[in-house]
Amino acid sequence: xxxxxxxxxxxxxxxxxxxxxxxxxxxxxxxxxxxxxxxxxxxxxxxxxxxxxxxxxxxxxxxxxxxxxxxxxxxxxxxxxxxxxxxxxxxxxxxxxxxxxxxxxxxxxxxxxxxxxxxxxxxxxxxxxxxxxxxxxx
Length: 138
Fold this sequence. Notes:
The chain is an alpha+beta fold.
């Protein structure tokens, strides 16, 4: 969570739409718990690619303990109801302003699969046409 000086407004570094939260919650329930981790990794046609994956409770505890015990960087965790997204602290600055959405197939609109989509804030990054990779702006 970002706290701005002289303001009581709190803003998360990323935005998650209701559709994405619903799908994330559904997946966590089907897998009997866990947490999603959102990060950026090198690769893709634009320099970096988005990575959203489910961690089981044991892997999440290990990663959280590692950051809690061995790092001055504290991870950001956003949640809605029982669903949580852990934002990788190393990737967080690259992910600023990103919106995570989940879209359903709609043949009439040319959407042929259900999928998570990632949209960067144009002030912070540019994206390629596939929506999977991005380049942070200077």
